[in-house]
Write a structure and sequence with these properties.
alpha+beta; Translation Initiation Factor IF3; Alpha-Beta Plaits; four-stranded antiparallel beta sheet; 11 strands; 48% strand
Length: 248
């Protein structure tokens, strides 16, 4: 997530957006259709897309611990303290260490303008984490635990499908694409006085899926309400190209 915001203990205001992963527009419909004679007879070639959707079964939270100070070593120690506090809190809510990984760590010197010069102004440290949950419904509670225990910034939440579930839904999308291809071919055959006799060849194109991305916009520093993250279905799209044998 490219946009991060400072977050403190309280209820976060969240915006849901659908992101697209893959090179195929999930709402597009590939519709290339041809009828041509072949050495062994006529063929009808069509391309089509199919879709299937499922509720997300996985959540990915991205949070960061921040620290600043005049001494780089002091900043590092503060980051370590806050990171330890964060991990302990996550364990208490049932998130194991294997579900948390570091995605970024940096300590950089800061500068400020003084009398037209650029002078040192201490150090800024960031330790960013990615938390993967196998139960998407727990995203809000885990996010609250993180923000209350060392996480100074929420970079975003992604509600998506686990790899196993994604394969299942991809198969459904592929079957839908095949059905759509046959429906298109039937229309062409009827319109050109041909009869489809079987499949000559078939190939698959790109697959894509659209996870739900939740962007934390602001936080209520004094509120105590729990964060609730609403979700919609995750859509998987498949593309196929089929050539059918035809007579007529």
């Amino acid at each position: 997530m490219s946009r991060g915001v400072l977050a403190t203990v309280g209820v976060a205001v969240l915006l849901l957006t659908a992101g697209c992963v893959g090179s195929l527009n999930p709402t597009g419909d590939a519709s290339a259709q041809t009828v041509r004679p072949a050495a062994e007879g006529k063929t009808i070639s069509v391309s089509a897309t199919g879709q299937a959707a499922a509720e997300p079964d996985q959540a990915v939270l991205r949070v960061a611990v921040l620290a600043s100070g005049e001494d780089a070593n002091a900043v590092r120690e503060r980051l370590a303290e806050n990171a330890t506090q964060l991990r302990q809190a996550l364990r208490r809510v049932g998130v194991g260490d294997d579900r948390v990984r570091t995605v970024a760590f940096s300590i950089d010197r800061e500068y400020r303008e003084q009398n037209g010069d650029r002078v040192p102004a201490g150090f800024q440290g960031v330790h960013a984490f990615e938390i993967t949950l196998s139960n998407a419904s727990r995203a809000g509670a885990v996010l609250d635990a993180a923000v209350s225990n060392g996480a100074d910034r929420v970079d975003g939440v992604e509600l998506t499908l686990s790899e196993e579930r994604r394969r299942e839904i991809r198969a459904e999308a592929l079957r839908d694409a095949i059905d759509n291809a046959r429906a298109n071919a039937d229309v062409i055959a009827e319109s050109t006085n041909l009869t489809i006799e079987g499949v000559h060849s078939v190939s698959t194109g790109d697959f894509s899926y659209s996870p739900i991305r939740v962007e934390a916009l602001s936080a209520d520093a004094g509120g105590q309400a729990a964060t609730e993250i609403e979700s919609g279905p995750v859509t998987v799209t498949a593309q196929v190209s089929v050539t059918y044998n035809a007579t007529g």
